[in-house]
Amino acid sequence: MRIRGMGEKAQQAHIRAIKDFAAFLKRPPDAATPEELHAYQLYMTDTGITPTTFNACIVALRFFFGMTCGREDMKRYMQFRSQPRKLPVVFSVEEVSDLLMAAPGRVSNTARRSASPTGPA
User: Fold this and answer.
1) Residues of the domain holding 53
2) Boundaries of each Integrase SAM-like N-terminal domain copy (predicted)?
3) Reduced to 3 states, what is the DSSP secondary structure of residue 80?
4) Which position among 17, 30, 75, 86 has the lowest Cβ density within 10 Å, counted as fewest Cβ atoms?
């Protein structure tokens, strides 16, 4: 891991992720099957691990199987999780009008008149 340029914290996180996987399996992780890997991913999802932590574990497992064990084939059984997108805040016509009414100045007067629900005065 040091040859790859990983920092100390990244190395510790990778080791912790592999230890957690071994604890789940109750045996050494280097002989894990695709079914066990799939079960572990379901376990992580069911226990409520955030997508960020889940993806960090997947990165560690990909490194472990690909670089340490030479089992590149296991990578195709690992799926990253996407984070749910937050919807943008959308103001109602009344909220926009209130916001413009609170703003001082000449430009604001023009904006207030044009943003009025009844149209420009």
Assistant:
1) 8-77
2) 1-72
3) coil
4) 86
Residues in CB range of 101: below 8 A, 6 or more apart: 112
Residue 46 sits in the same domain as residue 100:
no
Structure tokens at 66: 């690909």
pLDDT tens over the chain, length 121 residues = 888 888 999 999 999 999 999 999 999 999 999 999 999 999 999 999 999 999 999 999 999 999 889 999 999 999 999 888 888 888 888 888 787 777 776 555 565 566 555 555 5
Both 19 and 73 in one domain: the answer is: yes
Q: Which amino acid is at 112?
A: R
Residue 82 lies in a domain: no
8 Å CB contact between 74 and 28: no
